[in-house]
Specification:
It is built from 9 helices and no strands. The chain is mostly helical.
Length: about 150
């Protein structure tokens, strides 16, 4: 039996339950949305599970446990720590995928960005005259008409 693709198979009731559980883990705070306000149970859990399908089993298992969300998570943390940790990881991953959350934290993400050259870096690349022939040759390119 294969695990369900939760990114497409979570129904409305499961998403409501996921939002309730996620809000216990990430209730929000000054300047930060709660998990449900950040749509963790919507598009972001879809993306988290698409990125790491191995998390689906724990999410499915936790969603199937009846009871008050805070009690369910407390009991899981005490009795089934691995399931709790995996579920919390999926929820946190979905939360931090949301650009609004990253902006609120002042975290731009992991996109590459240019860094200024370190002091002495240019001299390092000019040692042993490795670039000497290139510098002596000069620029070689074709101008593009405007």
């Amino acid at each position: 039996m294969t695990a369900p693709d939760l990114s497409t198979e979570l129904g409305d009731a499961s998403r409501v339950r996921l939002a309730d559980l996620a809000d216990v883990l990430l209730p929000g705070g000054p300047g930060l949305p709660s998990a449900s306000e950040a749509d963790v149970a919507g598009q972001w859990i879809n993306r988290a599970l698409a990125a790491n399908p191995d998390l689906a089993g724990a999410v499915t298992r936790v969603l199937a446990i009846p009871g008050a969300p805070d009690r369910v998570l407390r009991d899981l943390r005490l009795d089934h720590r691995e399931v709790y940790d995996t579920f919390a990881f999926a929820v946190a991953g979905a939360y931090f995928m949301n650009p609004a959350v990253r902006r609120a934290l002042g975290y731009p993400g992991t996109a590459p960005r240019r860094l200024p050259a370190a002091e002495g870096e240019a001299d390092y690349y000019l040692e042993d005259d490795v670039l000497g022939p290139v510098i002596a040759r000069g620029a070689i390119y074709r101008r593009v008409p405007r």
